[in-house]
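Possible regression after last week's pipeline update?

I re-ran a chain I had predicted before the update to compare outputs. Posting the input and the new output here so someone can diff against the archived version. Not blocking, just want to make sure nothing changed silently.
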Amino acid sequence: MALCIKVPKKEANKVKIELIRNKNLNNKYKVISDKENIYFPINKEFKTKYKTTNKKLDSMKQEITSLKTALKKILTKKEIEMVKTAYDLVGDIAILEIDEELRKKEKDIAKALLKIRKDVKTVLRKQGSHEGVFRTQKMKYLAGEKKKIALHKENNIKLKLNVETVYFSPRLSTERKRITELVKKSKKKEDILIMFSGCSPYCCVLARNAKDKINSIIGIEINPEGHKYALENIKLNKLTNVGLNNGDVKKIVPKLVKLNKKYDRILMPLPKLAEDFLGEALAVSKKDTIIHFYNFLHEKEFEKAEQMIKKACVKAKKKYKILKFVKCGQHSPGTYRICLDFKIV
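New output (post-update):
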């Protein structure tokens, strides 16, 4: 018998992700289901709204699940220590970072990953950092199906995109959910502006999951390829309250100002350059507008985020109140993607 948590099927994926994240999914046993529920084997009991029960489960064959373990026959001990085991998974495409010293064995590393991850169909390698205004990143094919277009699922939506020609970070799934929960708690229906909207992940997640608290969503994306996929994704998710604009925020926002447009919530998910667009965000803000300002900052320089906001607000003659500081993920050692939520008062 194995200790299990009983979860309704419609909530199963969300719960599974949390169990894995908290290292509480017992991989020694197979998951079972009935007509309405999924039974996940767990390592120990924890505080939850779901019922725990004991079930007779089949044992799971002990397969190699660690990439480093799978590489023991391919790489030397020194080489294994150099392997970066964290990777991005966009749909069924895994995107690796492989150091120059291991490039001769990169295809072997990719094939090893395919063997331990049955949900991965393609393995690519990053060929550099994000470049240019469009924030795109070159990819090299390593193994599996030869493709760069993915169908990614998160937060009850689907996103189609080319991982090489469109900026997208699956690691921001939790942040997109956080913003959604804030909108759902709003006391009114909101008009929302999303700058640098890409292939529309924020637009789609908000429109799908917080539709009762949304009047309209406007997205602005400068990359024509990103805009193309954004339009596809709105149709793919059958959303109707989203308007998309292809162009430069600095050129489109003045047009919104002329139309006297003001927004209840503004998102600025462009960490490296968002400071340069605070003036545009403030131009279409009003009393009680909430702005989500993103940046990459070293942990010793977090106060710089508020300094940037203060400087822009003084120039725009606006008063503000800081609501929350959030770490959205680590960018490099000591440096984080942060979000500062602030309100115009």
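Follow-up from reviewer: compared with the archived run. Residues 2-55 form a domain with the Alpha-Beta Plaits fold (CATH 3.30.70.2580). Marking as no regression found.
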